[in-house]
Write the structure tokens for this entry.
Amino acid sequence: MEHSAADRPQAPREHGEAPLYGALDLGTNNCRLLLATPAADGIRVIEAFSRVTRLGEGLAATGVLSPDAIDRSLDALRQCAQRLQRRGVRRVRAVATEACRRASNGEAFLHRVHRETGIRLETISAEDEARLALTGCAPLLDRSRPYALVFDIGGGSTELVKVRLGSGGNGTGTADTVEALASLPVGVVTLAESEGSRLETPEGYAAITGRLVETFRPFERQAGLEPVAAGGGLHLLGTSGTVTTLAGVHLDLLRYDRSQVDGLVLDFDDIAAISRRLARATHTERAAIPCVGDGRADLVVAGCAILEAICHLWPAGRLTVADRGVREGVLLSMMQADRMAGKA
């Protein structure tokens, strides 16, 4: 794969200086950049950037990325390029997900991004996206359980991964095994656009949640995790703006704080109560909640419906919130590859 000066993978810095890595994740709703160095327990974050771009706005109806969505995303990507250049990051991987997979003008958009920002984005498959999210979240998995279900509620899709958990432990234990994975074309942007105000009535919310359960059921037939969850053998872990937002609301944070959210355990009863509260609220009321804000006020209820469907189908009783995912998976994968090659 060809790279520009802004994103060309090179050998990390030498002479004892910790190599700096960058991971960029352009999704249906957000553009996220993470800069980090290797650490004994994984990564040490140097800088993080996130911007709501809504790249997939209107995509479900038109099949194309709109000019406004492209402009918003290019603006965010220019800011990412500036950060990469300012810090002299020499080892970068930039990935695009569902919106670019689905859009008929996705490739043309990626060429424009490279031309105008120097960043070469690669569109990854849904399977690769799910595996990267799992890699990023692996440190939070509860290995006292035999299985985990890791899910990522995105803007345009939801990824589900069934994992048989190994013992881990500094490379001496048994490895985790992915036994089933799926990417379903339902996300917070697509659901909010297709259902709109129906989500804000109790009857509509219940009906849509029930329909989502059936959307996820084919994966359950493949994975066979419902009885495992009911028997206490399943660790449920969610990585997405939906679960981190609900965690922030649950903690009544005046300002989002990753250190308090990442790894938090939420009971299903609390998830249901917060979800119903948000669904009953007006847009203005949701926007006034610090951890929701105007940027998520029209999307969070759609995320709640997707999350409640997952909780209904896999009744583990509680889930772990992960404020980590694809970006961390990208970073850890690059660092591991460099260690094996003797570069880090």
Observations:
- The chain has a mean pLDDT of 92.
